[in-house]
Structures are given as C-alpha cells and as structure tokens.
TrEMBL record:
<feature type="binding site">
    <location>
        <begin position="8"/>
        <end position="15"/>
    </location>
    <ligand>
        <name>substrate</name>
    </ligand>
</feature>
<dbReference type="GO" id="GO:0016791">
    <property type="term" value="F:phosphatase activity"/>
</dbReference>
<dbReference type="GO" id="GO:0005737">
    <property type="term" value="C:cytoplasm"/>
</dbReference>
<dbReference type="InterPro" id="IPR029033">
    <property type="entry name" value="His_PPase_superfam"/>
</dbReference>
<dbReference type="Pfam" id="PF00300">
    <property type="entry name" value="His_Phos_1"/>
</dbReference>
<dbReference type="InterPro" id="IPR013078">
    <property type="entry name" value="His_Pase_superF_clade-1"/>
</dbReference>
<dbReference type="InterPro" id="IPR050275">
    <property type="entry name" value="PGM_Phosphatase"/>
</dbReference>
<keyword id="KW-0413">Isomerase</keyword>
<keyword id="KW-0324">Glycolysis</keyword>
<feature type="binding site">
    <location>
        <position position="58"/>
    </location>
    <ligand>
        <name>substrate</name>
    </ligand>
</feature>
<dbReference type="InterPro" id="IPR001345">
    <property type="entry name" value="PG/BPGM_mutase_AS"/>
</dbReference>
<protein>
    <submittedName>
        <fullName>Histidine phosphatase family protein</fullName>
    </submittedName>
</protein>
<feature type="active site" description="Proton donor/acceptor">
    <location>
        <position position="82"/>
    </location>
</feature>
<feature type="active site" description="Tele-phosphohistidine intermediate">
    <location>
        <position position="9"/>
    </location>
</feature>
C-alpha cells in the first residue's frame, strides 16, 4: 500500500493579489517559504520513497524547502501541473469576472459544465491525475511518496477519493498553501486519511 503525502505549493505573490496563475508562475512569499520549511520540520521523520512535483517554479521551490537535507531527488511530472486557465492566466479575479462573466460563474457554481477560454476543463485535470496515479502504482508498490502540486489538482483528487462528481468540487475543505493531505493508494482504491491540514502554518 502506498501512502501519498500530497501538498499544495506555498503562498505566492499572485495568490496574495488574487491573480490567476494556472500554467504561469510567481514567486513564493516569505510566508509561503516559512510554511514550507515548517512542513518540512513536521515531516522530518517521514521516509519518502519518491518526491514528485509539478514542474512549475512555485511547486519546485516548495518541494525543495520541504525536502530539506534529504538526498532523495525531486522528480517532476507534467500531469501534476495546475489547470491550464487559458485566457484567464495572469489576470485578477475581478478582471476575469468582468471579461468572462458566464465562464467565471460556471467555474465557481457549475464546475461540471465549465468550459475554459483556451485552456482545460476540470474533467481533463482529473483524468490526467487519474492516469498519473495508475502509473505511479505500477512503479512504486509501497511506502511513502511526497507529491507537490496545486489547489485545483488536489480538489479533483478529493473527488476521486470520494467517488464524487465535479459539481461537488468546491465543497470544503479549502486547500491552503502547504496544506497536507494524506491518501492511501491500494490496487486503485484511494482513501483520505488527512484532509488539507495546516497545523504547521504560522
């Protein structure tokens, strides 16, 4: 059985500005870095078979801070990248709401029918994550794996664990920066053991 330690990247400058990142990137804030180091201290006695990160800068920086002095390499996998938000990327929440009111409303209120302007659907995110897990289980059969990814990816993971539909995507818990979720993976079955824990955060 695999134990997956799934964390969201630390807070970024664009998170503070409520600016959509998607496949674009921005730097971790001081709080983001501090929370990642605190999570590393929390997990210092946990031995990981692998560390796998989204290739985005914000996730890689978080992974390095959580990894600490471990000698294990950080692998990257594009299937862990944040949802491609297309034309929304780099814009603030208010700008998106003004320019794309129908899509914005669907994204937050009817995620199962949301259609991106030049990017991905939420179902596409979930499907690539499912393939990632299927492949992971073929290569790592047991032990602990640290996964550093993004908020929307983690929300779709919750639905996979609960066998729930996309319309429930935004139900609690909220996925804060460096929040820790622990999932067991056994013969394709996923079970949530810990949800979006931020007890290490300042």
């Amino acid at each position: 059985m695999l134990h997956l330690y799934v964390i969201r990247h630390g807070e970024t400058e664009w998170n503070k500005e409520k600016r959509s990142q998607g496949r674009l990137d921005s730097s971790l804030t001081d709080k983001g870095k501090e929370d990642a180091r605190s999570l590393g201290a929390r997990l210092q006695d946990t031995e990981f078979r692998q560390i796998i990160s989204s290739p985005s800068g914000r996730t890689l920086e978080t992974a390095r801070l959580v990894k600490g002095e471990r000698t294990i390499p950080i692998l990257t996998d594009e299937r862990l990248m944040e949802i491609d938000l297309g034309a929304w990327q780099g814009k603030t929440e208010n700008e998106i709401k003004s320019l794309y009111p129908e899509e914005f409303d669907a994204y937050w209120n009817e995620p199962e029918v949301y259609k991106s302007v030049g990017g991905e659907t939420l179902l596409q995110v979930q499907q690539r994550l499912l393939v990632f897990f299927e492949n992971l289980e073929k290569t790592v059969t047991d032990g602990n794996v640290l996964i550093v990814t993004h908020g929307v990816v983690i929300k779709t993971l919750y639905l996979l664990c609960r066998d729930s539909s996309l319309k429930h995507l935004w139900e609690p818990p909220f996925i804060h920066g460096t929040s820790l979720t622990i999932v067991t993976l056994d013969s394709g079955k996923k079970e949530l053991l810990l949800e979006a824990c931020v007890s290490h955060c300042s």
